[in-house]
Amino acid sequence: MKCSVIQQKLSACLDGELEDSQNFLVESHLKTCQTCATEFEKLKKMDALLDDGVRLRPHPYLLTRVKASVRASLEKQTRPLWAFLHKGLAPAFVVAGLLLGIVIGLQLNDNLPSRATTEQSADYSIIDANFVEPLPSGSITATYVGLVNSMQ
Amino acid sequence: MKDEQLVTAFQHGERDAFDKLVLRYQDKVLNTCFRFLGDADEAHDATQDIFIKVYRALDRFKPRAKFSTWLYRIAVNHSLNLVRSKKRRSRLRTFSLLGAEQSQIGLIVDHAAHPDSRIEKKERSECVHRALEKLNEEQRIAIILHRFEDLSYKEIATIMNTSVSSVESRLFRARQKLAKLLQFMLD
Hints:
Chain A is an all-alpha fold. Chain A contains seven helices and no strands.
């Protein structure tokens, strides 16, 4: 067999991928041909160079990360439309809530003084009419109450 | 449990079967990516992306081919896409084994070895990686799957969708080219 044909088989011979008959032919040739034998040795050395012994170690959380990513994408796919709208309109909802709060607050503010006045008058009337003894005439307190009543 | 049984279990709703497949193949996928990309961090990211793709497609996987063949094909294609886009961007990073060694992830290197021999090993790896980059894609796939992942010619032929004789020819040419490129290290 020609050297050029043998040399094309050297790579497969090195890998143990030749059929028995072909392997026998190549090995027989290598015993008698110095050129091909040198070529074979060179190939072996080159192959040994590729064995740099470097292997990366898988990340300990690879599986966790993969599953988390898959879960996140699944949730994204199955999320209803309103959830997206809710997320997209969240700032608008916050602003609307604040405005509503302010309006209600203003309304209450308008109503509170009149309510307080009513309550105060009610208190005064309760004090005057039902739950206190009549003030002694000519006392400072009786004079003050008389003044207040004349102003109302 | 065989791969095919795990795949069937997954397709019948047993999602935990996927965990076993990841644990079984994470090392092979990671190191295949690493040989193509030459960068530890990128290889870790690529591995994660590959398993996410696998999870999404596993329900549709038809067991006409072996699971491992399918997985290697995804790993090779994904890695090659990354390499191509890296080349397009012309932002090829340097092959930084030392950086990976210092990172949390780390490499399986002989820490008991003398620092000089570690540097020598690192330099050798860099040279090998640069030489691998000079091969055409078909030769590179063949040599990486054969020399680093120890796959047979037949398995490589199935992954590359070609004949065994083509794989033989690609490996022969790849070795010829590598021998020339690494000649200075052989002397």
